[in-house]
Amino acid sequence: MGRRKRVLIVNCYWPETRVPMQLPNEMPMPLAPVHLAGHFAPRRWEIRLYNEVANGHLELFSGGLLDWPDVVVFCGLTAAFDRFLHLSAYFRTRNPSVVIIAGGLAVRLLPGHAAAQFDYACRGDVEEIREVIAEAFGAEFVADDPVPRYDLAHWMGRWIGYAESSRNCNFRCSFCTLTADALPWRGTDAGLFMRHLEAMGPRVLLHIADNQFAGAGRDAFAERLEVLRRAREKGLFRWWAGFVTDAFLWDEENLRRAKESGCISLLIGVESFDNQWLRRMNKAQNVREPQQALIRRCLEAGILFQYGLVFDPTERRVADMERELDVIAADPSIPAPNFIFVATPFPGTPFFAEKYERGLILPGTKVRDLDGSTLNLRALDGEEAAAHFLRTTKNLVGRRRSFLAHQARFHWRYRGALEAHVHVASALTIGSIMSPQGLSNMRYLLRARSPRTHIGATDLLDPVYTPSHRVDAKFAASFQPTMVTLADGSLNPALADDLLRARRTRVAAAVA
After folding, report:
1. Which domains does the chain have, with CATH numbers?
2. Spatial CA neighbour of 447 closest among 7, 8, 88, 21
3. Virtual CA dihedral for 139, 145, 148, 151, nearest 10 degrees?
4. Half-sphere exposure (Cβ direction) of 185: Cα atoms closer than 13 Å
5. Residue 186: helix, strand or coil by DSSP?
6. Which residues of the chain have pLDDT under 50?
7. Does the predicted model carry a pTM greater than 0.90?
8. Phi, then psi, of 205 in degrees rounded to 5
9. 252: how many CB neighbours lie within 10 A of its CB?
């Protein structure tokens, strides 16, 4: 057969700081590369995985890999699209015949544009890679019995493992990338889910990487809980954590059964305590019952409630967000948020279409800016005031003393309801919002931050936009940022069809 073909699977990533970083303790970590690797027949392929979250930008920290692969597979979030282009230029310069395959949200939300950039642009779930392998190399190069390759995931240590029991979501919040994606929620077969947990091997904490673990219906939820119960009895994990929505908390029986199966933490999309804004975002599941009461219900059941806040500067003023944080700091019955993001106009979402129609997307917005830490929308208080909020209050600057005091009162209030290890996990949330990079890598704890403006058009451009290795002249354009809007505020013509998919779908439905 000769030597096996070489495939490198890369999870691409941008640090919020916009300088190269290695964040080995970041949570959550990517799972897609592990699943993708399982579809390549081991007898035909040498397979390597690279995760830019844990290991940093590939060309800077592992430049030797640029000469290695015959095939490169990229995955990553929307903002990572330019990383795909950078790395493609390096690989194609070294090996003009290298095959570039791209997928994940970065491709799903920009499918038309991506199709022109890569040899294969995959819009579906990871299983689509099987069709690509068969088409490009032949059916014998596809794994007969795909199993996630946890053995290649060097960024997953012995303590924390990642698995999925379902995909996508059964809600359609207008700002969410999953709404643009429009793929239906579907559960993993119970037997397959158990097999994946066995492939992962024993861990202390299992992080279930579902977008919506509770899924659609009591029976599907009960089936996955039963798998977790049996896996725990086998010693495959001690505790688990996952993502659900407010709807999960409506029935206290859900909490009881989750706790019995080893659940210690749930991340739930609060986004805001402003019910009017939630309704406008089609997030009606969050306004059926008072969110504070649901948070207390979760905590009193012995499960840590974790959440983030979203700041929409086109609808809410900085003062509104400041008051929201004051309310949280004064109420020890609810925890501090894990993070605060600014609302982001993701391509193809109803949110993007609405903001564009109202002229609220800032000129000079780049795909790179769609990361939750960068202002891309016109603000009621003006862009400078909103950006100041992102530079400071987003990480509780000026409020740290009050939130540390709040954390102490929180621990005291739930001293009987939460076990010691859950209290430790809760304490880490303060570190995660005050110094997210420092918590993930102590080397960055005291390092000064880059002088960011936090406004897309004027913000710092990552130094890796300047090639660090030789690049063929024909790939020079790959290091120019991909624009969403041009300097005059108009849409980038190369992306226009992708950006306004949601508006076209809405118009077509209205005509029908």
Report:
1. 5-141 (3.40.50.280), 157-306 (3.20.20.70), 347-440+452-458+474-512 (no CATH)
2. 21
3. -100
4. 16
5. strand
6. 504-512
7. yes
8. -120, 130
9. 12
